[in-house]
Each structure stands twice: as structure tokens, then as C-alpha cells.
Specification:
Number of helices: 4
CATH class of the largest domain: Mainly Beta
Distance between the termini: 121 Å
Helix content: 10-25%
Shape: elongated
Oligomer: single chain
């Protein structure tokens, strides 16, 4: 028994103790990485393969709150732009449709797993795209000398092109401008101003900056051409 102990236990005892210490140190170094941690990340929802001439007409599209789990080191270094959800829209048609949000639709680093997605469903409304021209109605205010008043307002260009979901675009009667303060103007003055449409789902196609000519004259005077 003593020979066995000396041959297999005490033989090269220094190297064996060193190996044990190295193994213990390596375990201490690696073990924190093996501890699991979780984090909730607010991530965008990416819409893929949107059919031509189709618009999302939902006014509010939320981000997804995605809770993921993985090694603590990976979780601590995780960036929000590394995770997003994807919804496939190929074949979508005008109307309303509900989409499921599952872990299969989440793109994420391979070292983490998806635990939860909020919301788990997303309901969207779709409409065909419509593009048309509408008039611009400048909004001019101001105070003037006694007897003076605004006799003419011209917008250049007089119309602007808008586009968006058909149901929203059809309801827009005219575009307007930021307020133009023409206080103190005598005769003709030109202002460069931005045009906007109140509906957030309707977009102005070209540049929204226009020129507005305001003519102020005495009441009863003949407007210049």
C-alpha cells in the first residue's frame, strides 16, 4: 500500500500541485463567463419585402422589447443595434392584419437566446399608395400702418406633390406654411418658408421650401401685378 501511495500519489507531487493550481485558476477565470444573465433591449421592427405601391397606414408602430439571456460577459457587451425583429410583408394587401412576433423573427448574436418579446403580436393597417398635387395656402399674419392691409399673397410654386396611404392623402385639402410675420411690410416682400401637411403619414415629395410674395397696400389702392 505504501509503495502504491509513493508511486502514484507522491510521484511528481510538485507538478501535480502546480497543475491543480493552474486548473483552479482557469476555473476562476472562466466561471464568471459561464454565469447566465438577462437584459431587456428596446429594438426596432424591420419590415422586409414591402409590396410596391403598398403603404403602412398605422399611425403608431411600436418598437419591440426583447429580453435575451446569455453569458454575463456577452450580455454586458451587448449593443442595442445587434438585435432587431423582422416581419415579412411579401403578399400583404390593403386592410388590417395581425403578425406574430416570435423568437424565430429576432436577429441576435449566436451566444444569446430570446426569452420574451413584447408585444407578442403586432396589428398593422395597409393601404395603397396615392400621389397627387395639392394647393399651398400660405399663413400670413402681421400688423401694418393705418390703412394698410394685405391685398395679395402668391406662393411659388402654388402647388406641392404629396404621397402616402390613399385614405390619408385623399383627406388632405391643402398644404400650409409656417407662419409668416409680415409686420411692417409696405409694398411687396418675398419670404422663403417651409410647407407642411399636418397628417404625419403624408409626405411632401419634393423640397418643402417655397417663396411667398406678400403685397401690402393702402385700402382702396390698386394691387400691383
Amino acid at each position: 500500500m505504501t509503495g502504491f501511495f509513493q508511486r502514484y500519489v507522491l510521484h511528481n507531487i510538485g507538478l501535480k500541485l502546480l497543475s491543480l493550481l493552474l486548473a483552479a485558476g482557469l476555473w476562476l477565470l472562466i466561471s464568471p463567463d459561464e454565469q447566465l444573465a438577462e437584459v431587456a433591449i428596446r429594438a426596432p421592427i424591420v419590415f422586409q419585402h414591402v409590396p410596391p405601391h403598398l403603404e403602412i397606414s398605422s399611425e403608431l408602430i411600436p418598437d419591440a422589447q426583447i429580453r435575451v439571456r446569455g453569458p454575463e460577459r456577452v450580455i454586458r457587451q451587448l449593443q442595442a443595434n445587434e438585435i432587431h425583429a423582422e416581419i415579412e410583408l411579401a403578399g400583404a394587401k390593403p386592410g388590417e392584419r395581425t403578425f406574430e412576433l416570435t423568437s424565430l423573427q429576432v436577429r441576435h448574436p449566436r451566444d444569446v437566446t430570446v426569452v420574451q418579446i413584447v408585444p407578442s403580436q403586432l396589428r398593422l393597417a395597409f393601404d395603397t399608395r396615392l400621389t397627387r398635387d395639392i394647393e399651398i395656402h400660405p399663413r400670413v399674419t402681421g400688423t401694418f400702418a393705418d390703412g394698410d392691409q394685405i391685398v395679395k399673397v402668391d406662393a411659388d410654386p402654388s402647388h406641392i406633390t404629396i404621397t402616402g396611404p390613399r385614405g390619408h392623402v385623399e383627406k388632405v385639402e391643402a398644404a400650409t406654411t409656417d407662419p409668416i410675420d409680415a409686420t411692417g411690410t409696405r409694398g411687396s416682400a418675398v419670404f422663403t418658408i417651409n410647407v407642411y401637411v399636418a397628417d404625419p403619414l403624408v409626405q411632401v415629395v419634393q423640397s418643402s421650401s417655397i417663396r411667398v410674395r406678400v403685397l401690402v397696400q393702402k385700402v382702396g389702392s390698386t394691387a400691383a401685378h
